[in-house]
Amino acid sequence: MYKLLLSSRYLRTRFIALASIVSVMLGVATMIVVNSVMSGFSAQMRDRIHGILADLMVETLSTDGEGLPEELIEEIHRIAGDYIAAVTPTVEIYGMMSFHFYGQEIYRPVTLIGIDPEGKDLVSPLRQYLRSRQERQDGPRTRPAEVALSQPLDWNLSPSARAIRNEWVQLEAMRARYSEQYVSPASGETTDFDAEFEPATDFAANPFDQAPASAQDHEPIDPSQPQPARLYVGEGLVSYPDPAPDGTARQAYMVAPGQDVSITTIKQGKPEPVSFKATVVDLFKSGMAEYDSSLVFCSLEHLQKFRGMMAPPSRQPLHAGSTQAEMDAWEAAGRDWQANRNLDWRDGKFTTLQIRLKDYRDAPVVTDLLRRGLDFRRFQVKTWEQKQGPLLEAVEIESAILNVLLFLIITVAGFGILAIFYMIVVEKTRDIGILKALGASSRGVMSIFLGYGLALGVVGSGVGVALGLVFVRYINEVESFVSWVLGHKVFDEQIYYFREIPTAVHPMMVVWVALGAVLIAVLASVLPARRAAALHPVQALRYE
Amino acid sequence: MPKPASDYLVAQALDKSYHKGQHPVPVLRGVDVRINKGEFLSIVGQSGSGKSTLLHLLGLLDLPDLGRVMLQGSRIDDLPSATRDELRNRVFGFVFQFYHLLPELTLLENVLAPLMIRCSAMEYWRRRREFHDSASEMIEQVGLSHRVRHRPSELSGGEMQRAAIARALVGRPEVLLADEPTGNLDAHTGGEIMALLTKLNADQQLTIVMVTHDDSIAGQAERIVRLREGRLQSLDEAA
């Protein structure tokens, strides 16, 4: 009883002890704030990576891909169907995107991902990153989303993109006329795929390259119609920060949805480039700079066709007994092929299957099942975390190191407690003698000081936890205040891609930090407490 | 006044020396003291004669180098430290020259301290009424009822010493060990304290062992033991 009484009395009457409470408190509060912000950042980042990728990926080992996507999807369903919500095939390949901007040809290295919008929609929440589906801050005004977020992903142009296209087509036509006047026709090579007609192509390889010469005649190309191949382009690829006179910077776009860009990539099987034009349907911004400045989503079937991953319509119907209807159907298919219409990704090859699980916690199980079930010489199975392993690991390590450093701060506070307690023990030497004369045991005296340390730790970390949580709760207000004081933005949305500082408070983290701080306070009081216990009562009583 | 014939608290051939560097400084050299139950004994001696040390040895605050301390016929100085702590708490009450109250606690809490030390927190909480009553009673006996909530720093020397006596007696000890209880007080206040001690001895048959250097104070006890340079010099019957 006297232990409790004296511990609490010492706590209330020794103001020097407040210094150590404050240091414990600040250490705990800092740790909570930093951890919350770091885990907020990392959770947001994981969300964004996860949003672009999918839960699981089955990748073919060769960049040429594998055919018969439907069969493999069926097999995957057979192996782990219970866990799987959706599967969609994609083609991933490196490429180059080029476009005109103020009379310059601009080139960007890109990663092309051919997707089927319906399937991709089921696998990852890509649509929430599309610009036409987001509210946008345009200067002082907020523009509402042009397309409802609930609308399924598709390759249609939004009304404003259509308007931009009409305007842009006219400008392009003017530009073409203008350049014809000054540039000699010989050097005016065009990259238009449809014009790249070579009659000498091997008939067996591609019979429709030799399709009726009239094909182009009775299919006049309307320039205002968008290209068959469509793209979602990462915002970072086509924008740059444009500094305004008042010091702020806003994003300026070099390509707007509705315009065409040229895509160059390689054909399958041989290192031979292929170029095609495609219409940008939308821009996306996931917040992961790495993705936003390298990814281009392309319509899967066109990417398959241009890369030669899709076989042309079979010549099978053409035999002696073919009916006229069969002939017509074949010819129609041929015209569609030529015009890149009505293509179906099911006829082509894929390089990656993206899988969405019913519950991501099953990922290890499903990964294991698929690794065992699929031919390992042809496919490898990865979770999105494994695919982004180095980045996620770097974040983990960073946060671990930061935690160690911050814990050292609390340890420093612990040494402060040690020093202050030593002082208090010396100051209280006579009282310790009195207590012993009154019959207190050495252990009792020791527990006074251990209890004192415990009380310091509990009070310090309690106040620290409260302070930290309040700080985290109002971190954006704090940020704007600090920005106001310093006169420049501390947390720039342009740099971090977040409008607000993301935070995530994990209760277990708070508990561990608080417990750690209390433990350090108690450990720091062990030495002074032992010294107090070891005091000889007579010498302690004589102490002046 | 009838005295029990048996020796109550006995010191046999106590030797004690302190070390100053390499050299042992002898303080007590074979001291024998017998104290009867209900007796008021004064130990007189000059500074450095070892009288305080003798008191500490009797009260188990310190251990003798040689010799032994017996309580009711059984040796107590070689008991385990937990038992010695217990004896200090239950059998002996200490009063010091400089009062030695705990500055953080109020007078009442100071008086309660031995009871708090005796009991676990749970037991203390259960019996706090009883303890409060006996502490209040003790404070009343020493005449400090109006000072219960005061801190030691707000009390005068005499009041502090009376509080210390109340603290020493609240646990109903068998023996009161007083180390120069009047040494820091003026003659008048010292007289009050001595009157209180004499009264306690007379009314409650409390065994008191008092150490002093002042012969006139010592004279108020029943019996006087004189120490010089660590040796017992003479035994005077005061009465």
Are there runs of chain A of 5+ residues with pLDDT below 50, and where?
187-219
User: How many helical stretches of chain B?
Assistant: 8
pLDDT < 50 runs, ≥5 residues of chain B:
1-5
Estimated structural class of chain B: alpha/beta
Helices and strands of chain B, in N-to-C order? EEEHEEHEHHHHEHEHEE
Structural category of chain A = alpha+beta
First-last Cα distance of chain B: 12 Å
Labels describing this entry:
heterodimer, A: 544 residues, alpha+beta, 2 domains, six-stranded mixed barrel, 13 strands, B: 239 residues, alpha/beta, four-stranded antiparallel beta sheet
Short description:
The complex is a heterodimer of chains A (544) and B (239). Chain A is of the alpha+beta class and 544 residues long. Chain A has helices at residues 2-13, 16-52, 69-80, 117-123, 159-182, 235-238, 289-292, 300-306, 324-338, 363-373, 384-387, 389-427, 429-437, 442-473, 475-486, 493-496, 507-534, 537-542; strands at residues 56-60, 84-101, 104-115, 136-138, 141-143, 230-234, 239-243, 249-253, 260-266, 273-284, 295-299, 352-357, 379-383.
Question: Would you give an account of this structure?
Answer:
The complex is a heterodimer of chains A (544) and B (239). Helix content of chain A is 49%, strand content 17%. Chain A has helices at residues 2-13, 16-52, 69-80, 117-123, 159-182, 235-238, 289-292, 300-306, 324-338, 363-373, 384-387, 389-427, 429-437, 442-473, 475-486, 493-496, 507-534, 537-542; strands at 56-60, 84-101, 104-115, 136-138, 141-143, 230-234, 239-243, 249-253, 260-266, 273-284, 295-299, 352-357, 379-383. In chain A, the strands form three sheets. In chain A, strands 2-3-11-6-10-9 form a six-stranded mixed barrel. A two-stranded antiparallel sheet of chain A has the order 4-5. The longest helix of chain A is centred in the last third of the chain and has 39 residues, at 389-427. A six-stranded mixed beta sheet of chain B has the order 6-7-8-3-9-10. Residues 1-5 of chain B have low confidence and may be disordered.
